[in-house]
């Protein structure tokens, strides 16, 4: 990571005077948010929340939530996690001192929170063979049944993102509550307002965003009271269908953030999990685009989807705020492209923020 010394700081400040694009960071802990601010980030463009469900102290409750068979039991399990997530958000909001923070609601498929199919099958077999504790065997079988139910051949195109939230509305409810309570606590403590932006992932259809927005809005109204806290609700544009129907989606969005990792995966049809390895990596290098499209935006294809998304989104909602939060947000060539496409900001890993600040200035001067 670059060290910020005085000379370097002066040069990036010159860049700041020239650039039009805002530069935010992708950060999801107090430490990353603090680093992002030190490196000049003007907000957080993507706070992923999956780790807030994954840590060992929360996993048992998350698993209970997944195994629960009534909405009430699910909500009970989530209630246990709420204060812990609230504390996480308080840390992030405190570090950002009033700058905007885009929190993305839970994205990964639920099977990621369960033991894997093979391990769980082996556990059940072992308990059956050793004639172990009845209760333990029953629990292991119930988990196995759930693991099988949630198993998908193509999890990246499966029940993740807002699809999860459609099936388990208790999850966005709990997360929204944790976010708003954290923002109000920080506002009270620091005397500074918090720029809360709640983002719905993997939206393909207008109805998905409409439904999710109404859930988030309801909880916001319940929690905000007369505090005057303002909350924006927006969506990721990371599927071709969303980009192509951005005018309809924009009706329910206060902002768009382009998820160019998934948009590249689904736009070109290349698995992002395999792009670094083996045959596919070789194929990409030798035959596709000469450059890895997950590192530098594929201007002709995925780039066009971004341009269409911006144009259609703004045709329905003039001035709609748009950003990008895929890895491309810190790649200089991609930053130049996003500048040309008229985005408002890019968001990248904290250590790439200074590079993005330079690249955004260069895009103006070129
Ligand atoms: C994206 O898809 O570009 C994105 C930012 O989300 P994630 O990488 O978490 O899927
Ligand atoms: Mg994504």
UniProtKB/TrEMBL annotation:
<feature type="binding site">
    <location>
        <position position="259"/>
    </location>
    <ligand>
        <name>substrate</name>
    </ligand>
</feature>
<feature type="binding site">
    <location>
        <position position="261"/>
    </location>
    <ligand>
        <name>substrate</name>
    </ligand>
</feature>
<protein>
    <recommendedName>
        <fullName>Pyruvate, phosphate dikinase</fullName>
    </recommendedName>
</protein>
<feature type="binding site">
    <location>
        <position position="262"/>
    </location>
    <ligand>
        <name>Mg(2+)</name>
    </ligand>
</feature>
<feature type="active site" description="Proton donor">
    <location>
        <position position="325"/>
    </location>
</feature>
<feature type="binding site">
    <location>
        <position position="48"/>
    </location>
    <ligand>
        <name>substrate</name>
    </ligand>
</feature>
<feature type="binding site">
    <location>
        <position position="238"/>
    </location>
    <ligand>
        <name>substrate</name>
    </ligand>
</feature>
<feature type="binding site">
    <location>
        <position position="262"/>
    </location>
    <ligand>
        <name>substrate</name>
    </ligand>
</feature>
<feature type="binding site">
    <location>
        <position position="260"/>
    </location>
    <ligand>
        <name>substrate</name>
    </ligand>
</feature>
<feature type="domain" description="PEP-utilising enzyme C-terminal">
    <location>
        <begin position="7"/>
        <end position="362"/>
    </location>
</feature>
<comment type="similarity">
    <text>Belongs to the PEP-utilizing enzyme family.</text>
</comment>
<feature type="binding site">
    <location>
        <position position="104"/>
    </location>
    <ligand>
        <name>substrate</name>
    </ligand>
</feature>
<feature type="binding site">
    <location>
        <position position="238"/>
    </location>
    <ligand>
        <name>Mg(2+)</name>
    </ligand>
</feature>
């Amino acid at each position: 990571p670059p060290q910020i010394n005085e000379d370097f700081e002066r040069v990036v400040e010159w860049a700041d005077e020239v650039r039009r694009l805002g530069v935010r960071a992708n950060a999801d802990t107090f430490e990353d948010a603090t680093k992002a601010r030190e490196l000049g980030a003007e907000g957080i463009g993507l706070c992923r929340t999956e780790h807030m469900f994954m840590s060992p102290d929360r996993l048992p409750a998350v698993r209970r939530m997944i195994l629960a068979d009534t909405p009430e039991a699910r909500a009970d399990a989530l209630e246990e996690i709420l204060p812990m997530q609230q504390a996480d958000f308080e840390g992030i909001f405190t570090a950002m001192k009033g700058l905007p923070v885009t929190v993305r609601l839970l994205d990964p498929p639920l099977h990621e929170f369960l033991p894997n199919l093979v391990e769980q099958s082996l556990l059940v077999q072992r308990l059956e063979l050793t004639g172990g504790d009845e209760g333990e065997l029953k629990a292991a079988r119930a988990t196995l049944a759930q693991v099988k139910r949630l198993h998908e051949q193509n999890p990246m195109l499966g029940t993740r993102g807002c699809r999860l939230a459609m099936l388990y509305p208790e999850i966005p409810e709990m997360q929204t509550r944790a976010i708003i309570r954290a923002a109000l606590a920080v506002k009270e403590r620091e005397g500074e307002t918090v720029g809360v932006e709640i983002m719905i992932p993997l939206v393909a259809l207008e109805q998905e965003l409409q439904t999710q927005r109404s859930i988030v809005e309801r909880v916001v109204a319940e929690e905000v009271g007369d505090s005057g806290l303002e909350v924006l609700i927006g969506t990721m544009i990371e599927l071709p269908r969303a980009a192509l129907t951005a005018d309809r989606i924009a009706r329910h969005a206060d902002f768009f953030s382009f998820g160019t990792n998934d948009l590249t995966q689904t736009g070109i049809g290349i698995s992002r999990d395999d792009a670094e390895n083996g045959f596919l990596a070789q194929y990409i290098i030798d035959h596709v685009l000469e450059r890895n499209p997950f590192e530098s935006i594929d201007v002709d294809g995925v780039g066009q989807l971004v341009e269409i998304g911006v144009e259609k989104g703004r045709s329905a909602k003039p001035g709609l705020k748009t950003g990008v939060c895929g890895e491309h947000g810190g790649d200089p060539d991609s930053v130049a492209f996003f500048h040309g496409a008229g985005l408002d900001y890019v968001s990248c890993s904290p250590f790439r923020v200074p590079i993005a600040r330079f690249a955004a200035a260069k895009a103006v001067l070129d």
